[in-house]
Design a protein that fits this description.
The structure is a single chain. By secondary structure, this protein is an alpha/beta fold. It has three domains: about 5-85, Outer Surface Protein A, domain 3, CATH 3.90.930.60; about 90-125, no CATH class; about 130-375, Rossmann fold (3-Layer(aba) Sandwich), CATH 3.40.50. It is about 35% helix and about 15% strand. The chain has 14 helices and twelve strands. The strands form three sheets. Strands 7-6-8-9-10-11-12 form a seven-stranded mixed beta sheet. The chain has a three-stranded antiparallel beta sheet with strand order 2-3-4, with no helix packed on it. It has a two-stranded antiparallel sheet with strand order 1-5. Helix 6 crosses helix 7, helix 8 (about 140-150) packs parallel to helix 9 (about 185-195) and helix 8 (about 140-150) crosses helix 14 (about 310-325). The radius of gyration is 24 Å and the shape is elongated. The two termini are about 25 Å apart.
Length: about 375
């Protein structure tokens, strides 16, 4: 082990005895009281020294081995300790790839803030390489999500869509202008490959919770449903989702409909509300809803769907962040809930979606998981 106090958390002394790691309340931790000698020891935890050398330098400061171990344990308990040389085959493989880890350094730093365990950040970053995500839709939202997931280290990102790229599909970070006229799936595949930080390593591995049941395709960790016409995300058709529910495939809806952006729900089959639950609940509140939805879905849609570029980019970014949180082992706020924002005010609001008792998905009466981030972080003490 090469201990390091997580460098992504900014350090500041509140006074002569208490030191704060982190600027924002979500992740800040205050340690203290810390005497001068212990403060000097903290400065040695920078990832360049193994435990044997640290013991020697601690003795030179007049601190016993037991005292140094106690400080390390306290830092670990506070979620402030990382391991710069964690021994893990997947992490070692990631380090060995030329240039890949450098592209992902900022992501690694962010993961170290979110995940408290030493070495947890690089383990999760390495685990992304064995995951497979399918994005259904290659418009402004879907293509952006696919590019972001690939750039974040997800090993295999597949994009499914038909037709050819239209001028209004083009977006920064998504399909480029030179792709106009190409098949959407081919252009999206090229975008995913160009966005990847290194060699993509497709594996037959499931996400952290997808293993409860067989996926509809081997190794599928998550499906992101991001149709070019956002109505299919706002009012998703339950029929295409039946296979995902039946096979336990997690899926996340996202899109832009008219001037409203939608992220969620993230559906964990058998545990959270599905598209059919959403459809039944909306019909309970508005008896005319099924009739209107049937009219909106019917017939040939020749018009260009409204999709503001800034709103689409925001939805794509938030969707990718929620997807990555799930792939990294968390339950993001879109689990069993939908987030919406509308132009021009752009105030995000969320709505919980309860499993419907008349739905056959089996989620009604089940207890949803608890996000690990809900455990919180706060203040710790360290004897001087």
């Amino acid at each position: 082990m090469h201990p390091t106090v997580k460098p992504a958390l900014r350090r500041a002394w509140r006074n002569l005895q208490f030191v704060q790691f982190g600027a924002t309340p979500a992740h800040a931790v205050v340690l203290g009281p810390v005497d001068t000698t212990t403060g000097s020891l903290l400065g040695l935890f920078d990832g360049t020294r193994g435990l044997a050398l640290l013991r020697e330098e601690a003795r030179a400061l007049g601190l016993s081995e037991e005292r140094m171990e106690a400080v390390l344990a306290r830092l670990a308990d506070a979620g402030l300790l990382d391991d710069a040389a964690v021994g893990d085959p997947a992490a070692d493989a990631l380090r060995a790839e030329d240039g890949t880890l450098d592209r992902l350094r900022a992501d690694l730093a962010s993961l170290s803030v979110v995940h408290r365990d030493p070495g947890g950040a690089i383990r999760r970053l390495a685990a992304r390489r064995s995951m497979r995500v399918q994005v259904r839709g290659a418009g402004r939202v879907g293509a952006g999500v696919a590019a972001l997931l690939s750039a974040s280290g997800v090993g295999a990102v597949e994009v499914l869509d038909g037709g050819r790229v239209e001028p209004w599909d083009v977006a920064p970070g998504g399909l480029p202008a030179e792709a106009v006229g190409e098949r959407r799936d081919v252009a999206a595949r090229r975008l995913v490959g160009r966005s990847a930080p290194g060699a993509r390593v497709p594996r037959t591995a499931r996400g952290p919770r997808a293993g409860r049941a067989a996926c509809s395709e081997p190794g599928l960790s998550l499906v992101v449903v991001a149709p070019r016409d956002g109505l299919a995300a706002y009012a998703p058709d339950p029929l295409p989702a039946d296979d995902w529910v039946a096979t336990g495939t997690p899926h996340l809806y996202a899109g832009v409909v008219e001037a409203t952006g939608v992220v969620g729900p993230l559906v964990l089959p058998g545990g959270t509300a599905c598209a059919r639950c959403l459809d039944l609940e909306r019909a309970d509140r508005d008896p005319a809803w099924p009739r209107m939805v049937a009219q909106w879905r019917s017939g040939r849609q020749s018009r260009v769907p409204a999709c503001d570029l800034g709103l689409a980019s925001a939805v794509a970014g938030l969707t990718a962040a929620h997807a990555l949180a799930y792939l990294d082992g968390e339950l993001p706020a879109s689990t069993g809930a939908r987030w919406e924002t509308s132009l021009p005010a752009l105030d995000w609001r969320s709505e919980r979606i309860a499993p419907h008792t008349d739905c056959t998905c089996g989620a009604a009466g089940r207890r949803e998981g608890v996000r690990a981030s809900d455990t919180g972080r706060g203040q710790d003490t360290m004897a001087g």
